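WARN no homologs supplied; continuing
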Amino acid sequence: MSKRKAPQLAGVTSIRKMSSSLFEHPEKTSYINGAWVPASSGKLFECLNPANGNPIGSVPDMDSKDTEVALAAAAEAFKTWQKTTAKERGVILRKWYDILEQKKDTLAKIITLESGKPIAESLGEVAYGNAFVDWFSEESRRINGEIIQSPIKEKQMLFVKQPIGVVSLITPWNFPYAMITRKAGAALAAGCTCVIKPAEDTPITALALAYYAHQAGIPKGVLNVVTCDRSNAPQIGKTLSTSPIVAGLSFTGSTEVGKLLYQQCSTGVKRIGLELGGNAPFIVFENADLNMATDGAIALKFRNCGQVSRILADAKEKGAKIVCGGKPASHLGELFFEPTLITGITPGMACYSEEIFGPLAICIPFKTEDEAVTIANSTRRGLAGYFYTSDISQAWRVARDLEVGMVGINESLITSAEAAFGGIKESGLGREGSSHGIEEYVYIKYLCFGNLKL
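OK structure emitted
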């Protein structure tokens, strides 16, 4: 498979007040069928730096018409991509990984500009995201079938795994890089082609990934990016979930949007993977190492934060007590908020059951292990749960009883490319990462050879 030439650059994306050459691609275009194209309407929307509200660049405001073009390109590319060998796909993914590693500083700056997270966290996300490309470049060769013992000697029975087809990938703002590589890495390794719809807040990160995918030699139409502003997101989401071209959809985002996409995918009985909202309990038992637990809580609850004025206001109105923080960090800028700790939490408060995107932690006391587990499970969400204990028996009991898909025991940073990421209840369907991440993008075909003279 020959490597294609990089496209001629028509310009440089404007990343104002930081660098004029962070990310080289034709300005005001998105990536469809191996080419940099504008929206068919010619419309654009501005991306803003959430730290100060300043514009950092303009990207196409695409619609369902552009999405259909991208899906058609992915369908055409699937005809040949599905027939590549696992080794060929693995080699190309590895080239993509190598380029992404070389450009990690550039990519981290883009993430910081778009999502507002500190540069150290952005570098961490790039490393985390690149690990998925690395992992799935190797997993492509481990998509194995089975030979079944036939009940009849004249027959031979076997299972093979084949790519499901074109997949839609819809990703969020809070991990704009890693959520793309986690999905696209698995899909491409399996032999699927994809159309990516990044969050309207963070499209430039997705375009950077596409640019370096092109440099790595990923063929035209195999990976496509459709960007849009918030107003066009519903129609594009509907197209990506209802088009007869689409074989499957993977979405990371809110439970409410996930339910809508689930409903829309049902009209075509499509494969769907959902990584939805969580409300992760963090339990500290009396016998725990408090220093370890404190470090874990800070790492888990105060990184990658958005702001929550509404949730905090609701808690204050209903009687919660602010222990520290609770007001804007005006010395840093108008859009910053202090790390906040509140107590006196009751079940009627939004912070008790809703996912909190912000520098806000709540404390709920408990007396027994059973009470702690009951409180932790009193939500329809079930993504992850964490607890700290020095009692090994307690560790096994609580890990078993927490109604979540992932459990951190004396550890808050539990995700990696090797881990199966996903939840239960209303936190989603399917798993991402690990060897199980490939399963979302393949189906099992049963072959029966009959009338054999053995």
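The CA atoms of residues 388 and 410 lie 5 Å apart.
OK
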